[in-house]
Design brief:
By secondary structure, the chain is α+β, with helices and mostly antiparallel strands. The protein has one domain: Nuclear Transport Factor 2, Chain: A, CATH 3.10.450.50. The protein has a six-stranded mixed beta sheet. The radius of gyration is 14 Å and the shape is globular.
Length: about 130
């Protein structure tokens, strides 16, 4: 199962990069929860598929992301993705280490936490 969960997480990054909301909706559980740290428009707890897809769409609007995968570690119930996140938005840019922690079950992502190396820089990136 760990290989399947690694693929599930990588498929999520690929779908987000393509802004493929239909594919993302297939990867997330209906009651998915997403937790984003910080003090920016994307911060907070997002509950349910509709809310998480809206978060993905909001993040993808006007911003370009590149996720370099260092490693995806997974077992039957959890996964951790170690990434370098690079993003541009207008004249702003960000590059840093990000850790995504997942609960998975039944072939779906059920909960996600994001942790950024430099949260203040992420907050500044998203500030208007």
């Amino acid at each position: 199962m760990s290989d399947a969960n690694k693929k599930l997480i990588q498929d999520g990054f690929d779908a987000f990069g393509a802004q493929d909301m239909e594919r993302l909706s297939e990867l997330f559980a209906a009651d998915v929860k997403w937790h984003t740290r910080g003090d920016n428009p994307l911060s907070g707890d997002h509950d349910g598929l509709e809310s998480v897809l809206a978060l993905m769409a909001q993040a993808g609007q006007g911003a370009d992301f590149d996720f370099k995968t260092h490693s995806i570690l997974a077992d039957d119930e959890h996964a951790v993705a170690l990434m370098t996140t690079t993003a541009t938005r207008g004249d702003k840019s960000y590059s840093g280490q990000t850790v995504f922690v997942y609960h998975v079950g039944g072939g779906k992502i059920s909960e996600v936490w994001t942790f950024n190396e430099d949260q203040a820089s992420v907050d500044a990136f998203w500030a208007d």
